[in-house]
Amino acid sequence: MQNKREIVKTKILTYIKKLYQNNIKKLPSEENMTQTFGVSRVTIRAVLSELASEGVITRRQGYGTFISDTVRHLDVQFNPVTSYNKMIEEFGYHESSKILTIEVIDDASKTIYHKLHVPKKSKLVYTTRLFFANDTPCVYCTDYFPLSLLQQQKDTEQIPDFPKSIFSFLSRVSNHKVVKDYTQISTVLASNHADLSHYFLNEKTTEKSFLKLACINYNQNDEPVIYAQEYVDTQFIKFFSVRKKQL
User: Fold this and answer.
1) Is this prediction's pTM over 0.85?
2) 232 phi and psi angles, rounded to 5 deg
3) CB 144 within 8 A of CB 138
4) Domains of the chain (ranges plus CATH)?
5) What keywords does the record list, in alphabetical order (predicted)?
């Protein structure tokens, strides 16, 4: 759950985007924003300082606070609790998703057991799902998490009730909430991956490249709870990185 400052930050970011879309580059004074958002000036100042450090806004002494052009790229960020459904909608497509596989396995690779910090041959819940943009497949995801996170194996029957995110499922049926992830980014060709070939290639599309996100997701106790491999078709979803330079 977001704390008060995070909620205010989200509202201010939405406000900033609307100003930018209307070609307004200068923010109102802190006093005016205090009245607009109904919070203290201390909270407004703290949020603006954070946004300035992220490069979203620029403060010019004696002139005011201005919106940086980088705000146009803030619609999608690497955020472990943001579902692909939401990302797809933010890029202007109709979203839908489908769970393809729900299995309990004990023969995952040594690498997966290592990343989840569980002994080899431990039982894992393995799921796959497909996300669609305007009914066209655009993201393929595989998730692994220890069965021991659930009170009973029967709880896996509830996974279809959470087609958008395995994070939501774990949060609801256990005490584990994903709060951050460690992501390794690479690229992969569909022809080198059996499932990608099956779902994305056809007579007209004989090859396609994907952005692969290999993610270790951590709970509120800094414990690894989900290992995910996400294959993203960047024709539909694009990621942007804003890097602040130190002089």
Assistant:
1) no
2) -110, 125
3) no
4) 4-73 (1.10.10.10), 84-232 (3.40.1410.10)
5) DNA-binding, Hydrolase, Transcription, Transcription regulation
